[in-house]
């Protein structure tokens, strides 16, 4: 079996051969410094293995569960979830979509197993206020409600913290309003704790400004997920990687009910 290396060992490789479960993806990446989103990062690797181990899809409902990913980059997590049976909306900035994401998705659809979900690609700029979004300009584009929201390797600058969690909050609220279910979609954020001050600031922003509860996934669950994925890295190769589960608090849920009554 082809060995999977940590992302920082393969930045120089323009086309990665990347095994995931029973698929082999061919992922183009750029390491030209123009954008953080055009290369593979550790967070996408760890999040994909964790979700594969803990969120297995069971074909028991009328429709497939729907996932939106913020900052899809080269498309690994989107392809992984599609391989697991989820319908995925992969989003990123225009430069990332046009340079790597769209082509990687189209190139690898044929590598997905039978029973895979669909993948759609959409530009989503977090700096654009949610009230200016449009989900109706293209009826073929997947929109809310989403059953799961994910993001990895997206907390690296103070400037993007509030826009990121504003976007996550808006997608969660939209999913609640447009779904008969009263349960908010879980949000999984995978980050690398390079700068503890920045990481703590981001988590505090999610909790105190946007009303999410925070639960860190135990380290042993990440180890188990990697082992099941056939990965045997040294500890130093992925030190600092954390996965957090975010859920809207009861206070925000009650506000949602109040908003609906007023409408």
Automatic annotation (TrEMBL):
| Gene Ontology terms, MF aspect | S-adenosylmethionine-dependent methyltransferase activity
- According to the record, the signal peptide region is none
Q: Which InterPro entries match?
A: Methyltransf_16 (IPR019410), SAM-dependent_MTases_sf (IPR029063)
Which domain of life does this protein belong to? Eukaryota
Q: What Gene Ontology terms describe where this protein resides (cellular component)?
A: cytoplasm; nucleus
The entry's protein name is: Uncharacterized protein
